[in-house]
Amino acid sequence: MNKKSKNTSAVIAVAVAAFIILSIIIILVAGTGKKKEPVLKTSPEKTAIPQVSLAPDVGGAPAAGFEAFFSASRVYPATDTDLQQLLPLSLENGIQIESYGFYNGVYVESGSMEMAYNIIAIKVKNTGSTVLNSTKITIPHSGGEASFIVKALPKDESVIVLEANASDFSGKPDLSSAKAEEVSYYKENEIIKLSNFEIHTKDGEITVKNTSGSDITGKISIHFKYLFTDMLLGGADFSLEIENGLKDGEKKIFPVSAYINSACRITFISQN
Predict the structure, then answer these.
(1) Is position 152 within any domain?
(2) Within a domain: residue 120?
(3) At 257, which CATH number?
């Protein structure tokens, strides 16, 4: 290898190392961090993202290397003093906004799984008495209205939710006018205890065994969400649907291509 080639290799190595350093995760915390200009870019052509099907019955594990894009995701907080004084903000029917900021990383609110930049993000907590089924949160902005869809969030859990349309709202948000609309919760009898099952997971696969001592009929839904460090990420509901239930002691293996073992967590199980 000539001197020029060696120099080129060295430059590439330095560039890769710099990218890794810049990919260190910054946690969403209200009231800290440097102010960033919230200029939105969704750029699927800029970074090639392995496509992951959200259909639970499609076989095959996620493409190799996909998990790395989650570890490269970052959230940074808004720093406006007036904005932070409003947080945490309790909305209607057990919905609370804990913090507000911007997100760079995999856009998990749709099946595209593309990289997105400077997306508005809020951290939402379910302070209700049972599992949240669904709600739509709206926050007026000087440039329009930001919307956030939150589904399948257990009681007392928090989740980072990305703006539903990946829209560019660079103006100041009016948190005092934020609303939680169309709020609905699961009924207690629609939730099955996790202890009634033995569940094992790996990339692209979930194994479920009924250990409840009796047959469980009807459709069983095993809900999961992606993780951002130790926090739930994404308002979208991901679930494995077992249409005909499971007999006592029955064990089945299901291909779930959207499941990444170290970047997902099963949150609860429902039945209907």
Answers:
(1) yes
(2) yes
(3) 2.60.40
Phi, psi of 138 (to 5 degrees): -120, 140
**Same structural domain, 86 and 169:** yes
pLDDT grade, residue 50 (50/70/90)? Answer: very low
- CA dihedral over 68, 70, 73, 75, signed as positive or negative: negative
Amino acid at 56: P
For residue 99, count CB atoms less than 10 angstroms from its CB and return exposed for 0-12, middle for 13-18, buried for 19 or more. Answer: buried
Domain containing 257: what range? 188-271
Q: How confident is the model at residue 192 (pLDDT cuts 50, 70, 90)?
A: very high
Rounded percentage of the chain residues whose pLDDT exceeds 70: 68
- In the chain, the number of structural domains is 2
Do the Cβ atoms of 179 and 124 come closer than 8 Å? no
This prediction's pTM? 0.74
